TrEMBL record:
<comment type="similarity">
    <text>Belongs to the TRAPP small subunits family. Sedlin subfamily.</text>
</comment>
<keyword id="KW-0931">ER-Golgi transport</keyword>
<dbReference type="GO" id="GO:0006888">
    <property type="term" value="P:endoplasmic reticulum to Golgi vesicle-mediated transport"/>
</dbReference>
<protein>
    <recommendedName>
        <fullName>Trafficking protein particle complex subunit 2-like protein</fullName>
    </recommendedName>
</protein>
<keyword id="KW-0813">Transport</keyword>
<dbReference type="InterPro" id="IPR044760">
    <property type="entry name" value="TRAPPC2L"/>
</dbReference>
<dbReference type="InterPro" id="IPR011012">
    <property type="entry name" value="Longin-like_dom_sf"/>
</dbReference>
<dbReference type="GO" id="GO:0048471">
    <property type="term" value="C:perinuclear region of cytoplasm"/>
</dbReference>
<dbReference type="Pfam" id="PF04628">
    <property type="entry name" value="Sedlin_N"/>
</dbReference>
<dbReference type="InterPro" id="IPR006722">
    <property type="entry name" value="Sedlin"/>
</dbReference>
C-alpha cells in the first residue's frame, strides 16, 4: 500500500499530490521533492549511457528508514512518484509497476478532458478518489 502519490510536471512543478494521512502532507512533499534530483540524474545517465530509454519505470529512487520512494517518467517527461511504507514487505516490484500503469492511465484520462488546461494543477475529486483507490489497492 502506498502512503503518498505525486505527479510532477516536466518543469518540476507539482501537478497533483495526495497522501492517505493529510497531517503528514508537508513531510511527504519534502521526500518527493528530494527524489526529483535522483530522477533527473537517472534520466541524464540513461540518455548518455545508451541505456534503454523506452523504460518508463525508474525503480526505487530512495530507501529511507520508514519509506521507500519509487519513480516513473512518461515519454513527455511527466514524473510520477509513489511513497511506500517500508514495513510493507508484501508489495513487490510488479505491484509497483501496476500502480504506475494505473496512475498513468488515470492521468491520460484527466488530461484528455477538454476542460483541463494543460500545465495547470489537477483539481478533481474523482481523480483524487481514484488515486487513493490505486494507492490502497482497492481498484
Amino acid at each position: 500500500m502506498a502512503v503518498c502519490a505525486a505527479i510532477i510536471g516536466k518543469d518540476n512543478s507539482s501537478k497533483f499530490f495526495v497522501t492517505l494521512n493529510p497531517d503528514e502532507e508537508l513531510h511527504f512533499q519534502y521526500k518527493v521533492l528530494s527524489s526529483l534530483d535522483i530522477i533527473e540524474d537517472k534520466l541524464a545517465t540513461g540518455t548518455k549511457g545508451g541505456a534503454d530509454t523506452k523504460e518508463l519505470y525508474l525503480g526505487m529512487l530512495l530507501s529511507l528508514e520508514t519509506y521507500k520512494i519509487y519513480g516513473y517518467v512518461t515519454n513527455t517527461k511527466i514524473k510520477f512518484v509513489i511513497v511506500v511504507d517500508s514495513t510493507n514487505v508484501v508489495l513487490r516490484d510488479n505491484e509497483i509497476r501496476s500502480m504506475f500503469r494505473k496512475i498513468h492511465s488515470e492521468f491520460a484520462d484527466i488530461v484528455s478532458n477538454p476542460f483541463y488546461i494543460p500545465g495547470e494543477p489537477i483539481i478533481s475529486k474523482n481523480f483524487t478518489t481514484s488515486m487513493k483507490n490505486i494507492m490502497t489497492g482497492t481498484v
